[in-house]
Amino acid sequence: MNNDFYLENFSKNVDDFINSKFLLVESKLSKFLSNIAKNKLLYALIEVCLKDFNFEAEFKAATEGEELVLPSKAEKIVAFVFCLLVEADNKKLDFYKFLKLYFNSKDVEDSFRLFNEKVIIPFKNCVIVLCSEPEKEEEPEAPREPTFYEKFLPVAKQLISLSKMLPRCENCEPILIAMLDAAKQNNMKLFNALKTSLMYSTKNRKFIKQCREVFGN
Q: Which residues contact residue 89 at a Cβ distance below 8 angstroms, ignoring those fewer than 6 apart?
């Protein structure tokens, strides 16, 4: 099942709730929350939104004035409204008094209508927006430029192997090992000095020719 299926069910669930009468709000609220729990997409979203969410602190901030003010971020709106409905369903929040206090109007039905307009509809819109956002693809890391040591390592191995096969090259391997160490430390001054020493450490023309091809001199 794709996201559209779950979002369509959620929209029907919201419409059923907001089109009900306040007198039926108890049963409608329980049904509304039950349907949310059965909706895999929405349940997963709410789990994410509730992470590190402090309802008590957010409720205090939202009710500082005469009117309820929802949080500014979509994720917090989803978490806030969900927790608010759970509190009302568990009777920890007197929903009637809550409506009369923050959505006061000519009668309770009109207060309920205002609550739906200012709380449930924004909740619905935030859910749809958050569930419709495509997952951000991780950008591939830019290829790392190999270090000088990494570039020189295969060259050094090649020259060491060659020195072992050729006569009069017994002094070359220790110098090449020292050059590797200098390259690892990125000590170019020492590396270049050792490179010069390498060229004079043997009289084997084949080895010298190979060094010149590798080092370009």
A: 29, 30, 33
